[in-house]
Amino acid sequence: MFETEQKYASKQSSLKLEKVFSNNRTKITSVRDSMSMACDCGCGGATYPEIDGFYAVSAKHPG
Amino acid sequence: MPFLKGPLIKKFCTEKSSYIYDVNTNEIVSVDSVLYDVVDFYGLYSGQDLRSRFSGVYTADLLKEAKRKLALAKKEEGLFSTHRPSSLDYYKNMEAVEGMLAHGMQQLILEVTDRCNLRCRYCIYSVHYPHTRVHGTRTMPLETALKAIELFMAHNQDTAEPALTFYGGEPLLALPLLKKIVDYLKRNYTRNVRMNLTTNGTLLFEEAARFLKENDIAIVVSLDGPKDIHDSMRVYANGTGTFEVILHNLRNLKKNYPEYYDEKVGIRTTLACVDAAETIRDFFISDTILFKDKMILTGFVDTVDTDLFTRNIVDINDKGAIARLSAVFHEAILKQVPIDPFLDSLFMRSLKKIHKRIMEPLGETHYPNGICCPGARRTFCTLGGSLSVCERVSAGLCIGHVDTGIDPQRVCDILQEYIKLSNPQCVDCWAVRFCSLCFTSIYNDRFDIERKNKICEMVRANIKADLVLYCTVMESNENAFESLL
């Protein structure tokens, strides 16, 4: 994860700059992936419960 | 001289480190305090300007080195670029829209009734929300429902698992209608359709429970936590609390249909008072029979269109209950103990979005993650047969009717209006790759960019808080989310 640290260190600098927490995912690999990037589900999660991200505006639901 | 813009980045700090989220590469970069301070001015300030700006703070040599290092990172890694997408882009093409509508409908949501036996204090259909309908007395005519089903089934061949959602009001008040719809669907179509509904849980008596179980209909039951918290918001029309009857119904459901309960029943918890989040979590943890490993979905009340709850709402980024729970979450990750469903819903879902981000460069155009192709991703059919973008948007955003189908031109027009209004803000926004705002943010009874801008602020604050928590966890355990990839 800290692969660039040595690279920059070798160019003699005391300033720290390193890419961290990369995940090497370079493409969407499934429909589910693209769904996970899609909207917050207004059905209360019943349809796509694994959809990510439930922000303040996503609480609209009846019942 | 054109207006110059700095790198498209967001800076944030954990207790241990300073970070820059670089939008163009989607990378998170750990930096020291010098680079953290200087990066905002990279590409905008000359060496002389930088020295003046940081006079007495950093030496000239240090600033020179910082510039060199940022330039190197830009050249070799593409970091700290000032590039912005030239525009948002999504289904501009009428042919693409028509193609999606012809065979790609994914979800039909039927407003089977506008009746509800509850008067929850935060309900968007209460009088406190000016842009939505109020509780009514109607049930969808069977003919309308069947026309909608026929339209849906004629246009979902490309969808692996089409979904049918029963929406209300309280859908179980229309149980006889639900039975007829499901019977019609099963008699006339062989394709598997995933069915679901969200219910307030007060009407989950034996007849409804058996129907749901026999037809494999997934449900999400609204339950806001322990009795005093739940009953302060979720009440019958006469003001009586609903907690006891819901718990009774859930226990019966678990006892009579344990497999169905375990696999098809979820809980929706609205945090009307964020301060009570810890108490609510304790409640769900303590009842291991009903809630162990149960899917719990947390949400917050809509505070944009009403001032009813502003006095109750605590900023999600404050040092209160949510911050304390995030520390509990962090601790659990460190100790590698299982995350309970409440914490999972509160934190893990959004952290997944960060962890699973796509490490491709930001393009020349960018389509907003949140918006769908109206009519294809979901279609909301009102009681009267009007077809709308979705149940969360006012019915005014109409895209057709069950008698005439969906109008592709109208879908294109809605998309273009959204793009046109959102474009100036979105292409310059650091959160554009994580944001999931959609039509719900911009439309109440008209397109309203001011409303969207208010919501954008909340979303950016939440995403920043997520980035902080994500990096805090990863500092302790870089493999914390490995299983998510």
Task: Give structural notes.
The complex is a heterodimer of chains A (63) and B (485). Chain A is α+β, with helices and mostly antiparallel strands. Chain A is 21% helix and 6% strand. Chain A has a domain at 24-63. The N and C termini of chain A lie far apart (46 Å). By secondary structure, chain B is an alpha/beta fold. Chain B has a domain at 9-83. Chain B is built from 17 helices and 15 strands. Chain B has helices spanning 33-38, 47-53, 60-77, 94-103, 142-154, 175-188, 206-214, 227-231, 243-256, 258-264, 277-286, 288-291, 321-335, 341-355, 408-426, 439-442, 449-476, and strands spanning 9-13, 18-22, 27-31, 87-88, 107-111, 163-167, 194-199, 218-222, 265-271, 296-300, 365-366, 379-381, 386-388, 398-401, 405-406. In chain B, α13 (321-335) packs parallel to α17 (449-476) and α14 crosses α17 (449-476).
Structural features:
heterodimer, A: 63 residues, disordered C terminus, B: 485 residues, alpha/beta, 17 helices, 13% strand
Mean pLDDT of chain B: 89
| Major sheet of chain B | 10 strands, mixed
Number of extended strands of chain B: 15
- Provide the gyration radius of chain A in Å: 20 Å
**Outline type of chain A:** elongated
Number of strands of chain A: 1
State the share of residues found in helices of chain A, binned by percent: 10-25%
In helices, the fraction of residues of chain B equals 40-55%
Q: What is the tally of helical segments of chain B?
A: 17
Uncertain runs of chain A: 1-12, 28-63
Strand content of chain B: 5-15%
* Strand portion of chain A: 5-15%
Calculate Rg of chain B over CA atoms: 25 Å
Biggest interface and its residues per chain?
A: A-B, 48 and 92 residues
Structural class of chain B: alpha/beta
Q: What distance lies between the first and last C-alpha atoms of chain B, to the nearest angstrom?
A: 46 Å
What overall geometry of chain B do the principal axes of the alpha carbons give?
globular
User: Number of helix segments of chain A?
Assistant: 2
Sequence of secondary-structure elements of chain A: HEH
